[in-house]
């Protein structure tokens, strides 16, 4: 099938959807049949354009990505052509305006994310890092020269990005990072960056690495765009981390920098401290809150189909048993609530009315609920849950990672607890 590119359609779409509320149409409240796939009718909250974008993304993901994921997960293989295909459809950096990006609403971008993660959280991670963390960071904080030069190629998926914040000794506490940038001792106009980052999505194949390091002149954290092609041999290594137990269809690696020369012009000029990385993470965490609802919905669809098919005791399908029905009811409720919360935050984000804590709340809640429900639904498959052919085990393993990265859930509890009490408990 031919897929419609968002780039060709979205400028027109967005002009009419600039204030989504003005084009949204609310369905009548007359009695409607219950739709177990959209229990609270969230589709009524989408504009026509958002529905068209969702359908384009879902069709691509189901027809082109899904057939590849099982083998990719077995082989721990990430096909980087996927990012090019997404680029052709306008799915990368989709909320960015200009630079060849589609410029869609935050809800539309959430729907794209959900479609991708319905297939696999690893594929969504590859996309999120490219779109929200690397492109989003450059767009928000980079110089005009960096934006003009890098964003159009990144939007096409021709240049791949990575985001290096986590270090071997500093994960939840990135403020203690050890990576440093200091004036280069011999190259004028250059900085010298040294240190190690770990658990970095896309790092083994990334062309553009957005790395956060402490700047020796001020002791403050700054963002640096490192372009692999310009790094002399031995100054940048990005080994893959193999034998993962989750997110196996995504590439993860380290970043080792040994006096790597980086032009001063590649340092983000106006952002200091953790505000920079946290601003990028906010957008990515918002996407995760949407994405995991896609993975949970896929678990529900697969569990329902299995429970209707599989018969135990007097030829009854598993779906006839109350305990099984409760598992499905709990999961469908959490998926519907989580989706509505993500839509609400997306609308506020479009209007510039989000507090970071709102994003902590939906990231934490949706990841926790997706993981706990997926683990319970897995039980319905009995022994077959152990076979990767049923996909449920893959989602469960992936969802553990989504609950852990970009702020482990307990860390988001502390962020929320600080906002509620005024007392910070990170110690
Ligand atoms: C597959 C994968 C991909 C990733 N991709 C990226 C990427 O692209 N870029 C990037 O920068 N990072 C990435 N990460 C790293 C990820 O963000 C970190 O793993 C995460 O921030 C947690 O850090 P940590 O693993 O060091 O855990 P730790 O910080 O050691 O935490 C371990 C546990 O202790 C808890 N804990 C820590 N401090 C406290 C406290 N004060 N109070 C209570 N509990 C606490 C945590 O909640 C957690 O449960 C990725 C990780 C994985 C697994």
TrEMBL record:
User: What domain of life does the native source organism fall in?
Assistant: Eukaryota
Q: Which UniProt keywords apply?
A: FAD, Flavoprotein, Mitochondrion, Oxidoreductase, Transit peptide
Does the record carry Transit peptide as a key word? yes
Required co-factor?
FAD
Q: Which Pfam families match?
A: Acyl-CoA_dh_1, Acyl-CoA_dh_M, Acyl-CoA_dh_N
Tell me its EC number(s), please: 1.3.8.6
Please give the pathway this protein is involved in. Answer: Amino-acid metabolism; lysine degradation; Amino-acid metabolism; tryptophan metabolism
Q: Where in the cell is it found?
A: Mitochondrion matrix
Positions of the UniProt region annotated as Disordered: 167-187
Known catalytic reactions: glutaryl-CoA + oxidized [electron-transfer flavoprotein] + 2 H(+) = (2E)-butenoyl-CoA + reduced [electron-transfer flavoprotein] + CO2
CDD domains under this entry?
Answer: GCD
Keyword Chloroplast appears in the UniProt entry? no
Return the SUPFAM superfamilies for the record: Acyl-CoA dehydrogenase C-terminal domain-like (SSF47203), Acyl-CoA dehydrogenase NM domain-like (SSF56645)
Query: The Acyl-CoA dehydrogenase/oxidase N-terminal domain covers which part of the protein?
Result: 47-158
Top EC class for this record: oxidoreductase
Q: What is its main location?
A: mitochondrion
List GO BP terms, alphabetically.
fatty acid beta-oxidation using acyl-CoA dehydrogenase; fatty-acyl-CoA biosynthetic process
Record's GO cellular component terms = mitochondrial inner membrane; mitochondrial matrix
Which residues are in the Acyl-CoA dehydrogenase/oxidase C-terminal domain?
A: 278-420
Q: Which residues form the Acyl-CoA oxidase/dehydrogenase middle domain?
A: 162-260
What GO MF annotations does this protein's record show?
Answer: fatty-acyl-CoA binding; flavin adenine dinucleotide binding; glutaryl-CoA dehydrogenase activity
Q: Which family does it belong to?
A: Belongs to the acyl-CoA dehydrogenase family.
Protein name listed in UniProt: glutaryl-CoA dehydrogenase (ETF)
Source organism per UniProt: Oidiodendron maius (strain Zn)
């Amino acid at each position: 099938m031919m897929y419609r590119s968002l780039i060709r359609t979205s400028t027109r779409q967005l002009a009419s959807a600039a204030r989504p509320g003005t084009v949204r149409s609310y369905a009548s409240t007359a009695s409607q049949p219950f739709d177990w796939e959209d229990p609270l009718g969230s589709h009524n909250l989408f504009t026509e354009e958002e529905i068209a974008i969702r359908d384009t993304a879902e069709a691509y993901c189901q027809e082109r990505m899904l057939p590849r994921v099982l083998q990719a997960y077995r082989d721990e293989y990430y096909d980087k052509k996927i990012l090019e295909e997404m680029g052709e459809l306008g799915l990368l950096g989709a909320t960015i305006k200009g630079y060849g990006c589609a410029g869609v609403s935050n809800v539309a971008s959430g729907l794209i994310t959900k479609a991708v993660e319905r297939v696999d959280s690893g594929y969504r991670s590859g996309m999120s890092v490219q779109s929200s963390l690397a492109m989003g960071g450059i767009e928000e904080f980079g110089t005009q020269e960096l934006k003009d030069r890098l964003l159009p190629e990144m939007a096409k998926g021709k240049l791949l990005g990575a985001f290096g914040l986590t270090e071997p000794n500093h994960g939840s506490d990135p403020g203690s990072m050890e990576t440093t940038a200091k004036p280069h001792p011999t190259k004028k106009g250059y900085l010298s960056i040294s240190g190690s980052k770990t658990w970095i999505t896309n790092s083994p194949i990334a062309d553009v690495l957005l790395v956060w390091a402490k700047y020796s002149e001020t002791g403050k954290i700054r963002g640096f765009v490192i372009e692999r092609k310009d790094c002399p041999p031995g100054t940048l290594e990005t080994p893959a981390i193999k034998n993962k137990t989750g997110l196996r269809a995504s590439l993860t690696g380290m970043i080792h920098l040994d006096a790597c020369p980086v032009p001063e012009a590649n340092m983000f000029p106006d952002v200091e401290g953790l505000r920079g990385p946290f601003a990028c993470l906010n957008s990515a965490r918002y996407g995760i809150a949407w994405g995991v609802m896609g993975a949970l919905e896929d678990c529900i669809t697969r569990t329902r189909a299995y429970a209707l098919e599989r018969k135990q005791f007097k030829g009854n399908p598993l779906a006839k048993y109350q305990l099984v029905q409760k598992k499905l009811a709990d999961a469908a409720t959490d998926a519907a609530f989580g989706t509505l919360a993500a839509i609400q935050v997306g609308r506020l984000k479009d209007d510039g009315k989000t507090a970071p804590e709102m994003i902590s709340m939906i990231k934490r809640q949706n990841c926790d609920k997706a993981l706990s429900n997926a683990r319970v639904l897995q039980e319905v498959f009995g022994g077959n849950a152990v076979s990767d052919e049923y996909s449920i085990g893959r989602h469960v393993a992936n969802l553990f990672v989504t609950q852990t990265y970009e702020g482990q859930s307990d860390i988001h509890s502390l962020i929320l607890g600080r906002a509620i009490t005024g007392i910070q408990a990170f110690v």
